[in-house]
Design a protein that fits this description.
By secondary structure, this protein is mainly α. It is built from 20 helices and ten strands. It has helices spanning about 10-20, 40-45, 50-55, 60-70, 90-95, 100-130, 135-160, 180-190, 210-220, 225-230, 235-245, 295-300, 320-325, 360, 400, 430-445, 455-460, 475-485, 495-500, 525-530, and strands at about 160, 175, 270-275, 340, 340, 355, 375, 380, 405-410, 425-430. The strands form five sheets. Strands 1-2 form a two-stranded antiparallel ribbon. The longest helix has 27 residues, at about 100-130. The radius of gyration is 24 Å and the shape is globular. It starts with 10 loop residues before the first helix and ends in a 10-residue tail after the last helix.
Length: about 550
């Protein structure tokens, strides 16, 4: 749903305006002056577009790969050589990535671009527009939040990163300890909070408001022991309460849970605190990307007709049995985000069939009639087997291989798009996360507030997800399993696995238990640009 993209109407103009400043070695030159633009809150919002466009760029693609393919949530094996892609996906699964790993490099570059674009926008808008201009303080605070979010993602992935907040400063910045980066992000969010909007819904959709700030603080405090060595669970509870007490958000009921992720989602979703709007048309603008390709990666190629898609998807990725085991409650609406077992057309009755040959169905078929036509009902199986070549992470290039693994269609395929890009907006912070973070923080020792307990909070969420009886007790394993069910495919699973001590475990074909893999290496290319960097331990 893209009518709510409030900064989009002048995105082309503003993108061109900032394009001359993308090279960090070029001084700021702009025709943006206070007598022509911006002169009011609406124009200031439009002028803030480039950082938001940059944030959208690789979030649902490279960043998703880093956060999900490195866990038991998702796997993307090769099939007959297809999707091997210089072993990039294999490395994420096996935890044997190097400093030259492609997605490690592209994600670092993307986050650096978001930070640089935000520094650039803040510099231009803060120096060329009078302080009295309506909306200036609020929108500069928003941009500060975009930068803080980007630094949070960078800190979470790479640990020790350089801090650079001054556009035009071309000196090499050394990376600093993660605890120092944490302190910087916290100070930035707290500095932005007083000027951020308290509004929610259409008025602020796609932009950071005050409660985006509190949600980010809650996430940081919940992970503080891992990031800094110091527990801050009571602080996490207080940050969650700041969102809860606003009264602006609510848990979507069971009947509309799946609709939160439909192509027409948007500001009407009561849970969305901060979401990244996607629009296939936006990816065609100069200097922008949409990159919301979930259907391409998750919908089986046999399902083009079922979902009425204008393109043939590839569906190279699926989940693993170790993750899917969390979906064992038959009364839970969240089960419906998965494609499993025998498949049917949209009517739910007509079997979904594929006609191939006996050899095309099973490449190991040795009969003399391998070229004979063969029609079968598609049956998605839970296990992924490297039956062609384990060394090259290859399942084979027949129908059996392409039907391996249960598929996630939470971000429901967009039949209205004429490209592989989708209109589904992607939430970064949802109200259900606030509820579960508070429950977890209390279980880990945080001071309970408002008469709420970990059990009452857990049952508050589950009452909107399943018709099964309420729980009578709750522990951290229950919280972990609930987070798996609630936030599948939403880029939080790596963060959760690390916090719950599960990232070093075994799943799929992975056996590496090295703790240093909790953070990624600083890419080789980053050292070329910034020789002051120091590589992370273990790499």
């Amino acid at each position: 749903m893209k009518k709510h993209l409030s900064y989009g109407t002048l995105l082309v103009l503003i993108t061109y305006l900032f394009s001359a400043c993308h090279d960090v070695n070029v001084p700021i030159t702009t025709s943006l002056t206070p007598d022509i633009f911006p002169q009011n809150t609406s124009q200031f919002i439009q002028a803030s577009g480039p950082p938001y466009a940059a944030l959208r760029g690789n979030f649902s693609l490279d960043y998703w790969f880093m956060q999900s393919l490195s866990t038991d949530e998702a796997i993307l094996p090769a099939r007959g050589g297809n999707w091997y892609d210089n072993q990039g996906y294999r490395m994420l699964h096996y935890h044997d990535w190097t400093k030259d790993h492609g997605t490690t490099n592209s994600t670092w570059n993307w986050l650096s671009l978001v930070i640089g674009t935000t520094n650039q926008a803040m510099s231009i808008l803060s120096t060329t527009v009078p302080a009295s201009t309506p909306g200036k303080a609020m929108n500069l605070a928003e941009l500060r939040m975009v930068r803080a979010l980007s630094y949070f993602m960078m800190m979470d992935l790479y640990g020790n990163v350089p801090l650079d907040t001054t556009y035009g400063d071309f000196s090499a910045h050394p990376n600093v300890p993660r605890a120092q980066v944490f302190k910087f992000i916290e100070s930035e969010v707290k500095a932005a909070l007083p000027n951020l909007s308290r509004a929610s819904g259409q008025a602020i959709y796609g932009r950071a408001n005050k409660f985006t700030g509190f949600a980010l603080l809650a996430k940081m405090y919940l992970n503080s022991e891992y990031y800094t060595g110091t527990q801050r669970y009571s602080d996490a509870v207080v940050a969650c309460d700041s969102v809860i007490n606003s009264g602006l958000y609510a848990i979507e009921p069971r009947s509309t849970y799946l609709q939160m992720f439909y192509p027409n989602n948007g500001p009407q979703m009561k849970e969305f605190i901060f979401a990244i709007p996607y629009d296939p048309a936006a990816g065609a603008l100069p200097g922008t990307n949409s990159n919301m390709y979930h259907a391409r990666y998750d919908v089986p190629r046999s399902h083009t007709k079922r979902f009425n898609l204008p393109f043939t998807p590839s569906a190279p990725r699926s989940t693993l049995p170790e993750f899917y085991v969390n979906f064992k409650d038959p009364n839970d609406i969240r089960n419906n985000q998965w494609l499993t077992g025998p498949q049917f057309l949209a009517d739910g009755v007509t079997p979904l069939t594929v006609t191939t040959t006996k050899k095309g169905y099973d490449q190991t078929y040795a009969g003399s009639d391998g070229g004979t036509a063969f029609t079968y009902q598609v049956n998605l199986t839970p296990n992924v087997v490297l039956r062609q070549d384990e060394a090259t992470y290859d399942c084979g290039n027949d129908e059996i291989a392409w039907n391996m693994g249960y598929r996630n269609v939470k971000f429901y395929p967009d039949a209205s798009s004429t490209s592989r890009n989708q209109n589904n907006d992607v939430p970064l912070f949802r109200y259900s996360d606030i509820i579960l973070m508070k429950a977890e923080a209390i279980l880990r020792g945080g001071a309970a507030t408002q008469g709420q307990t970990a059990l009452s909070l857990m049952n508050q969420l589950r009452a909107n997800r399943t018709t099964s009886p309420a729980l009578t007790s709750v522990n951290l394993e229950d919280i972990y399993a609930e987070r798996c069910r609630e936030f599948a495919w939403e880029t939080w699973h790596r963060n959760d696995m690390i916090r719950f001590g599960k990232f070093e475990g075994k799943w799929g074909f992975k056996t590496d238990a090295s703790a240093y893999r909790r953070i990624f290496p600083i890419p080789t290319g980053a050292f070329t640009v910034n020789p002051a960097l120091t590589q992370n331990p273990g790499y």
